[in-house]
């Protein structure tokens, strides 16, 4: 995908407040400016990359999806910081680089299948970003 790596910065906003933490995978939802500036060619799906929060760098697994709150006409950008162990960081700025594509979005038959897909995404993100984090 020619558009990658893609860099952006934005503010962490509140999402539905459901889903993420219950699945053991909180996702920091990015503000509208990030969503509006996304290149058209960045398709909906799951990506990996790195993100910086308050000067600390993390590997990230990220999704670009359709927001059901807006009749699926607006996108969402949600970031899971891997190995982040602190508390909530709503309202903070996050800068990130999307490095690669992991998979397309799909609906899963069960919560268990969704959870194992997320676990795999995180493994891929962790593995693919090892070198970046050493730099
Ligand atoms: P929301 O629907 O408001 O996005 P989530 O259940 O997805 O709620 O939780 C996201 C929030 O959890 C983030 O905005 C952040 O403040 C917090 N958080 C804690 N740990 C992480 C993490 N490892 N990755 C992303 N967000 C995290
Ligand atoms: Mg979220």
Describe the 3D structure.
With about 140 residues, the protein is α+β, with helices and mostly antiparallel strands. It has one domain (about 5-135): Elongation Factor Tu (Ef-tu), domain 3 (Beta Barrel). Helix content is about 20%, strand content about 35%. It is globular, with a radius of gyration of 14 Å. Bound molecules: adenosine-5'-diphosphate (ADP) and magnesium ion.
CATH superfamily: Riboflavin kinase-like
Count of discrete alpha- or pi-helical segments spanning 4 or more residues: 2
User: Which topology does CATH recognise?
Assistant: Elongation Factor Tu (Ef-tu), domain 3
Query: What is the count of distinct domains?
Result: 1
What is the global morphology? globular
Number of beta-strand segments:
6
pLDDT under 50 segments (min length 5)?
A: none
Q: What ligands does this structure carry?
A: adenosine-5'-diphosphate, magnesium ion
Physical arrangement of strands within the biggest beta sheet: 1-2-5-4-3-6
Strand content: 35-45%
**Rg result:** 14 Å
What is the second-level CATH architecture?
A: Beta Barrel
Spell out the helices and strands N to C.
Answer: EEHEEEEH
Q: What's the main sheet like?
A: 6 strands, antiparallel, barrel
Percent helix among the residues? 10-25%
Q: Please tell me the overall pLDDT.
A: 92
CATH class: Mainly Beta
- How far apart are the first and last residues' alpha carbons, in Å? 23 Å
Structural class: alpha+beta
GO molecular function: ATP binding; riboflavin kinase activity
Pathway: Cofactor biosynthesis; FMN biosynthesis; FMN from riboflavin (ATP route): step 1/1
GO cellular component, one term: mitochondrion
Organism: Caenorhabditis briggsae
């Amino acid at each position: 995908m020619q558009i990658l790596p893609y860099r952006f910065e934005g503010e962490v906003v509140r999402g539905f407040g459901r889903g993420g933490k219950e699945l053991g995978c909180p996702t920091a939802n990015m503000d509208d400016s990030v969503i509006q500036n996304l290149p058209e060619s960045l398709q909906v799906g799951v990506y990996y990359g790195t993100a910086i929060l308050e000067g600390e760098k993390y590997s990230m697994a990220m999704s670009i999806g359709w927001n059901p709150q807006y009749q699926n006409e607006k996108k969402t950008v949600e970031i899971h910081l891997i190995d982040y162990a602190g508390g909530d960081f709503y309202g903070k700025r996050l800068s990130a680089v999307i490095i690669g594509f992991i998979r397309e979005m799909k609906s899963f038959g069960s919560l268990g299948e969704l959870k194992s897909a997320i676990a795999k995404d995180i493994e891929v993100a962790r593995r693919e970003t090892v070198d970046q984090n050493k730099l």
